[in-house]
Amino acid sequence: MHDQIHFDLKKNWLATTNLVILIAFTLLLLVTYFTARSTADQSDNDNYNAYNVADDKLLTHVAKLQAIKNPDAATVRKLQRRMAQHEYLKTIELAHTDLDNVFTTNLTKARLETEKAVLAYERYTLREVQAGRGKDLVVIALPGKKTDKSLLGRKKDVAYYEYLVKHKLVEVPATKKDAPANNYIAYAFLYNVSPLLLLAVFAVQLGQLFTVEKRRGTINFLNIVPRGKLGVLTARMVSFLVLTVPLFLAACGIAYVTAAQRFEIGSWQYPIVYSADGQHVSIMGIGQFLLLYLALLLAVAVFIMMVSTLVSLYSGNLAVNIVASLVVILLGAPQVMTRVPAGLARFLPTAYFQINSVILHETSWSIPGIGFGVVVLLAWSLLLYAGCTLILRRRQLI
Amino acid sequence: MLTVKNLTFAFHDKPILDNVAFDLQDGQVIGLVAPNGTGKTTLLRLLCGLLPDAKATIALNGVDLHQHRTAYLKQLFFLENSNQLYADLTVKDHLEYVKKMWKSKVDVQKTVAELGMASYFKKKIKNLSLGMKQHALLAMYIVSDAQTMFIDEPLNGLDPTSIQLFEQIFAELKAEGKTLLVSSHQMDSVGRVSDSVFFLKDQHIHDVENSGQDMMALYTETFLQEAVHA
């Protein structure tokens, strides 16, 4: 097996496709960087607008309530709550204006003050939701972030700002174009690059690797090699992983270094908030998120690899192979997965293709967790591997 | 010894082989001769299990192709043509791979020297001429040290000196007890190296012992006159 892997790697490591794949991964991860170069970062303004919009909305409600003549006790209480919310938002806006103040010497301090004000407001909204008064709440809708008025949503926001304040970390908005490298790379996976697109690049590499011998006619040579054909096929799978995973990591590295050179590095401890059970909130650092993302991406890539391998046993056509993988990848799109019966989805490999949502437990379909997802993906991969084994045992040709 | 029985094959409706049976003894060179498109390469592919032939019995030294494929393949070497070499790999890569896969003890450097390939041993296949590729191909056969070798038109693209060298190598391999089934259109060469010649005609093999007769005349008699009459 070792000799076969060595030979396969020799055959493929200088292939032009590798460069194409590296460029494709890198471009995907640098899209935000290129946008940042051509346009100024507006995330501070966007956030300020979000506070303003929330406050304006609130003031409209306040004006309506104040216009009521002889209000009853419930209306008065509602008005008091709206006014309280307005006060919180006003404090946030005031703190935020310091960022634009030419006399502000310490911008980080000003940002931390804004965060404290936001935290106070988020704590208020949590108390209100816990008291069953969530209906009257106006939630700040920060651009690029899902607005969630539920109890869990409030808990998440509170946990997020508590963490930032406690660790004196400056908030890096999801839309920030000049985000520090750590946030840049994490946000690429969280918000900016669909995992399905990354998987599509893997599919192209797989199509190339698993059909090239049939297309070039060298497959007959491999078929007369006095070794088990499953071993030859397995060696090719290993070659794919040995070649493509480093290419992906290299692309991540290029994107990271590029962002770090132009912006800054940031903190590995920057919080990403999630809830594993839909009730309790947890926080993971960017480093942990990236590791989980890579692990799950690898598991999904292994599954797609098995699809490509199986197809390659029947067709040496590059287009057929790539299209087959892409069809499977598209089955993981939310539009498809939401139609799958709830009890079944968790057992399908496609349920775990939306890697970012899976890690944050934000899929629209029910899944038990990342570990379960990896087990499901590897179990399906093993099943397909067993299929390949049976086919090869029967016909003994790749 | 290679034993073949009940070998029948057709491409869709076109019959190629009909109930072919033959034995190849150790230490023999057998020429395989037929016009293009008759089925020479198909026969060689069938003997390697590259095409399906469920009903045939094909065994090498008692090892059945269908039942013990890996052990069967260990005893033979076949590479259709130099186009099946890996363009981006060097001659060295190919030879070392074959040596490992066939678990051969043949000295690669010695083979390279014998075939005069030292100057392009480390060159990529895509940078070689057809003749050089043919040398690389022959080197792979030698390095595999397989007992049985199916060689498909090995003299294509070779100059007269190289043809002489190849024929000498065939003779040496034969002397080592190897069995060579060599498909070729070069009838003079077939006449020089073969112990007997398989003429593939009408889906059957006609085994003709080489007793020094004019092979070209025999070829003409077997195939061309029929074509003229047709």
Tell me the layout of helices and strands.
The complex is a heterodimer of chains A (398) and B (230).
Chain A: H1 2-12, H2 16-38, H3 43-66, H4 73-97, H5 107-130, H6 151-166, H7 181-192, H8 195-216, H9 219-224, H10 229-262, E1 271-274, E2 282-285, H11 286-314, H12 318-330, H13 334-337, H14 342-345, H15 355-359, H16 370-395
Antiparallel strand pairs in A: 1-2
Chain B: E1 2-11, E2 14-24, E3 29-33, H1 40-47, E4 57-60, E5 63-64, H2 69-74, E6 76-78, H3 91-101, H4 108-114, H5 130-144, E7 148-152, H6 160-175, E8 179-183, H7 187-193, E9 196-201, E10 204-209, H8 215-229
Parallel strand pairs in B: 3-8, 3-9, 6-7, 7-8
Antiparallel strand pairs in B: 1-2, 1-4, 4-5, 9-10
Helix pairs in contact in B: 3-5
Quick synopsis:
The complex is a heterodimer of chains A (398) and B (230). Chain A has 398 residues and is mainly alpha-helical.
Keyphrases for this structure?
heterodimer; A: 398 residues; mainly alpha; two-stranded antiparallel sheet; elongated; B: 230 residues; alpha/beta; Rossmann fold; six-stranded mixed sheet; four-stranded antiparallel sheet; 8 helices; globular
How would you characterize this protein structure?
The complex is a heterodimer of chains A (398) and B (230). Chain A is built from 16 helices and 2 strands. By secondary structure, chain A is an all-alpha fold. Chain A has a two-stranded antiparallel ribbon. In chain A, strand 1 and strand 2 (282-285) form a beta hairpin. In chain A, helix 3 (43-66) runs antiparallel to helix 4 and helix 4 (73-97) runs antiparallel to helix 5 (107-130). In chain A, 37% of the residues are buried. The mean pLDDT of chain A is 92. Chain B has one domain (2-229): Rossmann fold (3-Layer(aba) Sandwich), CATH 3.40.50. In chain B, 37% of the residues lie in helices and 25% in strands. Chain B is built from 8 helices and 10 strands. Chain B has helices at residues 40-47, 69-74, 91-101, 108-114, 130-144, 160-175, 187-193, 215-229, and strands at 2-11, 14-24, 29-33, 57-60, 63-64, 76-78, 148-152, 179-183, 196-201, 204-209. In chain B, the strands form 2 sheets. A 6-stranded mixed sheet of chain B has the order 6-7-8-3-9-10, sandwiched between helices. Chain B has a 4-stranded antiparallel sheet with strand order 2-1-4-5. Chain B is globular, with a radius of gyration of 17 Å. The N and C termini of chain B lie far apart (38 Å). The mean pLDDT of chain B is 93.
